[in-house]
């Protein structure tokens, strides 16, 4: 018999977070989260997103053992201000039993109906900076710290329950052997002279933090046209700075400015922490922090975390300036591959940015949608 229980206590939240550690225990490709960091996502005293969102966590049990989990999420900014009548679901993991999935989805359905919403979509987090999608291709490729991994049967569960694919995402990678740094250095020089643009890179994390708000403002502007976009507010900016920017070498961040001193582009890359996180097994101590710092300094692979260009300047070569700065800072580090984060399949603008890098497809994922009847 399958029982679904709402997660309330701190102990139960930790069990909710730890369930995937059991489900993917023998996987070479799953990348564990840091348990304490994951628990804090569901703490309203830590995560400011919860000021504008409701979240309910559930676990499914068989014989008193957890066999599935799900989070039902209502982003009220999305619902009230953007008038998108949607309940999201995320943090979805389950054994290969469609009946368990059905029981968990029923809880999302109930909450959606109680709040007069029209449909559910997931897996996804609170916003565009959260993990997204069911993996449908690339199961034999290691994940990243900013994506979910799942077993191949997940998509079949949703199809059996009459969900339809809503959004599709691609993850690509390119080899640094394919990057002509001299070309981008030359193009950057031409563009800067032509338009009086300039670039800024950073030596200290403190300097990045001082300039991060304008970067997030540009992120809001450059991604606003994409589906499901929810703007990052000022409180969330502070949270994201503390959560993510501390992991990034300041040399891996580049900004571009116009002649008036306004930011017109940014790019952030980070070392691949995937193997370090696998070694940590979700814990900072006793050696987890060492593994993270080692990856921060010596990882041979990178993850392209974010890139944004002001729509008014997207045809003026801003990306050449950003790439040139980063490539110069990466010299001598023996970088092998760069992994791109999930990008909407219809986001042609971002795909054009990378065409000269000869990218290859690495993973596919999608979200699923179902109307609430």
How would you describe this protein?
There is one protein chain. This protein is globular. Strands 1, 2, 3, 4, 5, 6, 7, 8, 9, 10, 11, 12, 13 and 14 form a 14-stranded mixed sheet that branches. The chain has helices at 10-23, 35-41, 76-81, 98-114, 154-160, 181-195, 205-223, 234-243, 274-280, 288-298, 318-330, 348-353; strands spanning 2-6, 53-62, 65-75, 86-94, 119-122, 134-137, 164-175, 198-201, 253-257, 263-271, 301-309, 337-340, 343-344, 360-371. The longest helix is centred in the middle third of the chain and has 19 residues, at 205-223. It folds into 2 domains: 2-171, Aminopeptidase (3-Layer(aba) Sandwich), CATH 3.40.630; 174-362, 3-Layer(aba) Sandwich (Aminopeptidase), CATH 3.40.630. Helix content is 35%, strand content 27%. It is built from 12 helices and 14 strands. With 373 residues, the protein is of the alpha+beta class. Helix 6 (181-195) crosses helix 11 (318-330).
Concise description?
The chain is built from 12 helices and 14 strands.
Structural key phrases:
14-stranded mixed sheet; Aminopeptidase; alpha+beta; globular
List the SSEs and their pairings.
Elements: E1 2-6, H1 10-23, H2 35-41, E2 53-62, E3 65-75, H3 76-81, E4 86-94, H4 98-114, E5 119-122, E6 134-137, H5 154-160, E7 164-175, H6 181-195, E8 198-201, H7 205-223, H8 234-243, E9 253-257, E10 263-271, H9 274-280, H10 288-298, E11 301-309, H11 318-330, E12 337-340, E13 343-344, H12 348-353, E14 360-371
Parallel strand pairs: 4-5, 11-12
Antiparallel strand pairs: 1-2, 2-3, 3-4, 5-14, 6-14, 7-12, 7-13, 7-14, 8-9, 9-10, 10-11
Helix pairs in contact: 1-2, 6-11, 7-8, 9-10
């Amino acid at each position: 018999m399958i029982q679904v229980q709402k997660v309330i206590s701190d102990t139960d939240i930790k069990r909710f977070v730890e369930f995937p550690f059991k489900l993917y225990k023998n996987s070479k490709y799953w990348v564990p989260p840091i348990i304490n960091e994951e628990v804090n996502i569901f703490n309203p005293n830590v995560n400011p997103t919860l000021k504008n969102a409701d979240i309910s966590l559930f676990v499914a049990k068989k014989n008193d053992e957890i066999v599935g989990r799900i989070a039902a999420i209502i982003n009220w900014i999305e619902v009230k201000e953007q008038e998108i009548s949607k309940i999201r679901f995320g943090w979805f993991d389950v054994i290969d039993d469609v009946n368990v999935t059905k029981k968990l989805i029923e809880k999302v359905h109930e909450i959606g109906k109680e709040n007069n919403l029209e449909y559910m979509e997931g897996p996804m987090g609170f916003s565009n900076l959260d993990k997204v999608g069911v993996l449908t291709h690339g199961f034999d490729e290691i994940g990243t710290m900013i994506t979910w991994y799942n077993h191949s049967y997940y998509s079949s569960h949703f199809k059996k329950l009459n969900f339809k694919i809503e959004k599709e995402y691609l993850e690509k990678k390119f080899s640094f052997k394919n990057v002509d740094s001299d070309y981008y250095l030359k193009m950057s020089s031409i563009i800067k002279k032509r338009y009086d643009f300039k670039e800024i890179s950073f030596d200290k994390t403190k300097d990045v933090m001082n300039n991060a708000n304008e970067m997030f403002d540009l992120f809001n502007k450059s991604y606003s046209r994409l589906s499901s976009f929810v703007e990052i507010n000022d409180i969330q900016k502070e949270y994201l700075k503390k959560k993510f920017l501390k992991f990034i070498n300041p040399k891996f961040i580049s900004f571009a400015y116009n002649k008036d001193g306004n930011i017109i582009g940014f790019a952030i890359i980070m070392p691949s922490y995937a193997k370090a996180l696998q070694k940590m097994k979700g814990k900072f101590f006793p050696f987890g922090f060492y593994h993270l710092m080692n990856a921060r300094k010596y990882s041979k692979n990178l993850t392209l975390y974010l890139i944004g260009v002001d729509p008014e300047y997207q045809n003026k070569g801003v990306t050449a300036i950003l790439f040139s700065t980063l490539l110069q800072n990466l010299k001598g580090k023996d970088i092998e591959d760069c992994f791109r984060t999930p990008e909407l399949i219809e986001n042609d603008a971002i795909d054009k940015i990378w065409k000269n890098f000869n990218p290859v497809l690495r993973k596919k994922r999608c979200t699923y949608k179902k109307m609430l009847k």
